[in-house]
Amino acid sequence: MSVVILYGSETGTAELVSDAISDVLSQQHDVSMYDMSDFAVEDLSSDDFYVVVCSTYGEGELPTGAEPFAEGLDDEKPELDGVRFATFGLGDSVYDDTFNRGGEIIAEKLVDLGASQVGEHGRHDASSKVAAKVQAAEWAAEISKVISPANH
C-alpha cells in the first residue's frame, strides 16, 4: 500500500512538515507527496493510504493551497468508502475557537464522503516550544503503525 501525503499550505509550513513526515514514513512505505492544489479528488483510491497535512489560515479557514481540493470534494462528491487517512493540522492556540480548523475541515469532508480517519489527529500549536517538523515526525512514527504493512 502506497502512502500519499497531501498538503495544504498558505506560507509553505505544511510542505516542510510533509517532508518531515515523508522522511519517517518512507523508511517502511512507498511515499509520494502532492500539494492539494495539484491533486484531483477523482484520484483518491482505497488502494492508497492518505496523510493530510493542512494549515489553518485567517479566521479558521482553509489555506489557499487546500481550497481547490476542498471544492473538488464538495463538487464531485466522490464515493470514498474504503479510503483511509490520517490528519496532521497546523495552527496557533492563540486563535481559540479556530485552532487547527483547516485540518479538521478537510478531515470532516473526507469522512462525510465515506473515508475513515485512523490514528490520532495530530495538531501542532505554533505557540508551543515544539517545532512543527519535530512533532510531525513523532506523529508519523505512530501513524506508520496503522498503515497496512502489505506491499512495502
Question: Which descriptors apply to this entry?
Answer:
alpha/beta, 152 residues, 6-stranded parallel sheet
How does this model look, in words?
The chain is of the alpha/beta class and 152 residues long. Helices cover 32% and strands 22% of the residues. It is built from 4 helices and 6 strands; from the N terminus they run E-H-E-E-H-E-H-E-E-H. Strands 1, 2, 3, 4, 5 and 6 form a 6-stranded parallel sheet that branches. Strand 1, helix 1 and strand 2 form a beta-alpha-beta unit. Helix 1 packs parallel to helix 4. The mean pLDDT is 95.
CA radius of gyration is 14 Å
Class based on secondary structure composition and strand pairing: alpha/beta
Q: Summarize the amount of helix as a percent range.
A: 25-40%
Q: Give the SSE order as H and E letters.
A: EHEEHEHEEH
User: What sort of overall outline do the alpha carbons produce when their principal axes are compared?
Assistant: globular
Task: Please give the count of helices.
Answer: 4
Poorly predicted residue ranges: none
Tell me the layout of helices and strands.
Blueprint: E1 2-8, H1 13-25, E2 31-35, E3 48-54, H2 67-76, E4 84-91, H3 101-112, E5 116-117, E6 122-125, H4 132-144
Parallel strand pairs: 1-2, 1-3, 3-4, 4-5, 4-6
